Protein 1
Amino acid sequence: MTEAHDGGQLPGQISLSGQSPIRPSAELAPVAEPEERDLEAALRPKTLDDFVGQERVRKQLALVLAASKIRGRSADHVLMSGPPGLGKTTLAMIIASEMNAPLRISSGPAIQHAGDLAAILSSLTEGEVLFLDEIHRMSRPAEEMLYMAMEDFRVDIIVGKGAGATAIPLELPPFTLVGATTRAGLLPGPLRDRFGFTGHLEFYSVAELELVLRRSAGMMDLKLTSAGFSEIAGRSRGTPRIANRLLRRVRDWALVHGVETIDARTASSALDMYEVDARGLDRLDRSVLEALVNKFNGGPVGLSTLAIAVGEEPETVETVAEPFLVREGLLGRTPRGRIAMPAAWVHLGLRMPANAVAAAMLPYNDDELDG
Ligand SMILES: Nc1ncnc2c1ncn2[C@@H]1O[C@H](COP(=O)(O)OP(=O)(O)OP(=O)(O)O)[C@@H](O)[C@H]1O
Ligand SMILES: [Mg+2]
């Protein structure tokens, strides 16, 4: 346990204080903490064969790469889209290594001026892979320069200002742009159209996450039973980043408790302590469901009322808790407010009363409740 702790908090302390706000748990955040980067880099698969799951994207990408090798040209530009932690950066690195090409890494937010991009583009070597993370956050002028670079391998460098400004055309060596975005919908059409191939990454199945975990456990020299792997996989919200993080937390627990082979009971004791439940819900997710079910008989109830009931800001409930609850079919959003889906009652170990089903169908005055 020489590595940095996530956020430096001891989860036990949070729950003991009793009145701390219900914060979303760091264990289940889909986005990586800065101190997590090195740990992640160590676990990244290096080849397409090593990359687990995403069968469709993997096959399509393999074809694009194989074809470009046969043609002896740099591969088409590739766009990777999908939620955080599913493997976009990993695939970008794999593309470079499969093409035996050097990799240059930058990101949308780092390119604020067209000049920033011109500097990168003009220093590319033939066949190089340029990875632009968060490509939807690039500035407009840089984006327009990128259009031309992608299509014609050429940029116009503007020298001087105002009436005296001249554009000096600059030829670029053929390169492969790999863009990554969590928000494909925010990409302007002309940019999207210039990618030869777009891979949409999907959430992983539990079986796929088990494979991710087996691979990671092997690299970390950990022993787990099959049931131990599936226990962790089931709580990982379809996201390899979260699976690897939970594996590290379980490893810590096993280390401290002197457990050598991690079975389902060890994994579940460890993750219960971090308040990650059997379905990957954290404390905030659960209190939203519990309020909905216990205080409002399953709803419908307005967002602001629900937020008050759990002592949170409506925005936190809406952006942090709801997307996963909706995806899991535990919570429904209706024009009349939020409702608990039948699976919510099951998950909380309760029976859905008949009138809760009926209540979800009744006209309901949301404003009156909220006021
Ligand atoms: N298919 C996979 N097989 C094995 N490990 C994976 C896979 N996908 C992702 N991982 C692991 O999950 C972690 C996060 O992956 P990655 O950084 O590629 O996600 P990302 O999509 O780029 O996320 P973000 O949107 O936050 O940048 C890495 O440590 C990587 O090793
Ligand atoms: Mg990434």
Protein 2
Amino acid sequence: MGWPATDVSVSPLDHWRWKFLSNPLGFHLVCVAEIDGAVISHSASIPVRMKVGDRTVVASQGVDLCTDPAFRGAGLIGRTMVCRNAMKDQHDVRLDFGFPNQASYRLSLGKQGFHDLGITMLQHRYIIDEEQFFKKVRFGPIKRIGYSTYIMLKRPLGPRVDVGGGITLGREREMGEEFDNLYAKASEAFDMMIVRDSGFLTWRYGDHRGGDFIVRTARDNGRLVGYMVHREEVKDGSRFLNIVDALADPAAPDAIPLLLLDCISMAKGMEIETVLCCLPEAHPYGKHLAEAGFLSQVRMTGNQEMKVIALERGGTTDLINRLTGRGLRAHIMLGDTDWV
Ligand SMILES: CC(C)(COP(=O)(O)OP(=O)(O)OC[C@H]1O[C@@H](n2cnc3c(N)ncnc32)[C@H](O)[C@@H]1OP(=O)(O)O)[C@@H](O)C(=O)NCCC(=O)NCCS
């Protein structure tokens, strides 16, 4: 499959172990078919806790369906998916969700009963180096993984920057209990979001087997008021910085604007051409991105608009009614997918 799709500096097997066996919920949803001890088909989902309205349930994102080319067309993927779904029942998974490509969008809605949540995802783009961007300079044969790891190791932690008024910005290595408190406050502004508690954040962004992420925080007199997570990407000779996650205390309205300025200045220091940030339309952080000079357009997956789909499990409908209802305030970013 050319797996994983994202760049990692560890072996695919170590990345697989991180992705499925190190989940902070303490269980996995992976089912494989074997022949003579060799894996020939693989279905998986990633369990997370998700806030839907005023409830928090276990939800799962379907990922990494694959059958060995020599064994395709024999119904193996269907059987590993049935087995994986039975594992969801054991763990009381109440909701399935996903960000499908065109083919799996059709299958999921047509055959499996998923609903399109009707969320328009926007791609916000800030062009740092216009000359580089428009000339599309090629970097030549830079080894993608090797180069980004080299840069990561070279970049120092750096001191926190005092921006006045008691606010400081800086890089963070560990995400502890204060991130739980921030989630508790910040999540009130949203009706749908993956629970970004310290366990989730440490697993998602703090383990190098999952990728190399840069976590920047804003603190008010030492108290955590917001964070932004970044991931560098080299694609077709261009260097991007993806803002893959962000969250701020609603009582600190300057946190996101300051973290954006911090991001742009960091990107300049890293010789990045373009900063990208994916958020639902009408998201409260969207106006800060526009004020900072980001331009937005609809985010595509291949040649269709990025879709968010969900399926309620267990015969009830309250979750899906909430998710498909009017005015849903969803907090969805690239780090919620397995694309980064
Ligand atoms: C897609 C793939 C996993 C199918 O595996 P397979 O074991 O050969 O599957 P089969 O052809 O025996 O069965 C296909 C069944 O799975 C379903 N299916 C195929 N792809 C699916 C998907 N992405 N999501 C849900 N169901 C899917 C089909 O609808 C079909 O169901 P049916 O038998 O009820 O009609 C396999 O072709 C593959 O590994 N492709 C490369 C990787 C890939 O594209 N993965 C999907 C990424 S979303």
